[in-house]
Amino acid sequence: MSLAAFGPGKVILLGEHAVVYGAQALAGAIARGVHATATPASSCTLVRPTGLKPAVRQQLAAAFEAAAEAAGRPAVQVRVESDLPISMGLGSSGALSVAVARVLLQASAPSGTPSARRVTEVALEMERQFHGTPSGLDHTCSASGAVIAFRKRKGAELGTARTLEVPTPLPLAVVLVGERSPTRSTVAALRERQARWPVRYGRLFDQIGRTAAEGIAAVEQGDLAALGDAMNVNHGLLCGLGLSSAALDAAVHRLRSLGALGAKLTGAGGDGGAVIGLFDSTAKARRATTSIGLPAFTSTLTRSEEHTT
Ligand code: MEV
After folding, report:
1. Is the CB of 127 under 6 A from ligand 1?
2. Relative to the CA of 15, which ligand 1 atom is closest?
3. How would you classify the pairing of strands 45-47 and 76-82?
C-alpha cells in the first residue's frame, strides 16, 4: 500500500524578516507545492531527487534524518515531487518538510490522519536543518493550507497561527525575478546590521509588524485596496532594511504599472527571488503575468483548502 501527502508552498503577504524578531506576519498557502509518497521498505529512507548540488543533497539527507527520527522511523521509502520553483522565496523547503512529515506520520500511525500540530512539529525538525533558526512561518503556513496571521514572540519555542476568514479572495500575480542567496545568509546578514544598529532596525521591525496587523484586518474586512497599500508600504520598509535589489524593485514597479493594488518582494529577498502583486481580479492578475516578461503565475488565495491557480 502506498501513502501520499501534499505540502503547499506559501507567499508572505506582509511581515517577512520582522517576524524573526517577534513581529506579526501574514502569509497564505498556494496551490503549488510538494507531493510525497511512501511505499513499504525495509527501513526509513528518502529517494533524493537527481541533479541536486552536493551541499543540497547533504542538507536534504540530514533534514530527512531529523524528520524520520521525530516520526518514529516507519519502514517506508519516501519519494518527493515538486511543481514549486526552488529557492525563490515561495517556501519550497517548508512545503517539502510538511509533505515529508505528513507522509511519515501517516506511515507511523496508519489508522489516523496526523494532526496539524504534529505535522508542524516534525516539519520544524526538517526546517531547522535547512534554515538554522526559522521563525516557523513557512512550514506553519504550509501545514495549515490556509491564509494565516502568525507570530512567534521573542524566546518562544513555537509560533502561534490564526487561520483567517477571507471574505474577498486575494488574486495574486507571482513573478520569479531570479536566483538569490540562501535564506540563511540573507537572515544572518540582516542580523549583523540589526546587532550593530538595534534601535534603528528595531523601529523598522516595529513598523512592519504594525503594517502587517493593518493588513490582517484588511483581509478580514475584504478591503483589497487597504491590503495593497500595506503591501506597498511593507516593500518600502524591506528596502530600508536592505533586502531588495534593482531587479526586485523593477518588477514591483512594473506590477504596479500593470494595475496592482499593491506589490512587494516576498520571502527572504536580498539579491533575487520572487515578487507578488495583488489585483482586484484574477483576470487582471493573469494579464499581468503574461505582460511582465519574466516567469510568472497566478494564485488566488481563498479560505483554507479552496485554492485556485
Ligand atoms: C522566509 O520565507 C521568511 C523569513 O522571514 C525567515 C523566517 O521567517 O524564518 C525571511
Report:
1. no
2. 5
3. parallel
